[in-house]
Records
---
Amino acid sequence: MSRTGIVERAYELARDNHSIDDIRAALRKEGYIQVDEYLQDGSLRKELKKLSSRES
């Protein structure tokens, strides 16, 4: 069984209305590595924030 990729998992968490800090913490807890490096990407952060706020 393969694990969901970090970016895909971040999108799933954003759809569940998690903040960037919540997403970061959840990804670390789930054992993903280089979380900060991925979440430093401005376009990814913007998309995650937009998705999260749209769901609220």
---
Amino acid sequence: MEKSQLTLVEQYRKKLYRIAWRIQYRARVQTNHEFVMEKNETVIAPSFTESANSNMYTLQLINSLSSEIGKMIIFDLYILDKTEAQIAKELKLSQQAVNKWKKKMLKELFRMLSSSNGSN
């Protein structure tokens, strides 16, 4: 083989090596994130009343927030499962503003839950 062909082969070999490494890395990351159940392990789903009570409590917490915009953002994000970008478009805000509202409201919820747990 000529020297130029050899270097071309080496270049392709390196590119293939990188591609294979990326594929293996993605597969490893994905398997690490997946939930693996053992054969004898069973999943117990919450009963209807438990999930209904949980939903009611969650809605009660969201409604106790101080800001109407904050309530809408948290409700849309966590109950309606919308993205920040979708909410930003609906409310005519930037995604960054939606993210700031989310963080602010989550801090408020955390303070409310911390103070209620401390008083019990």
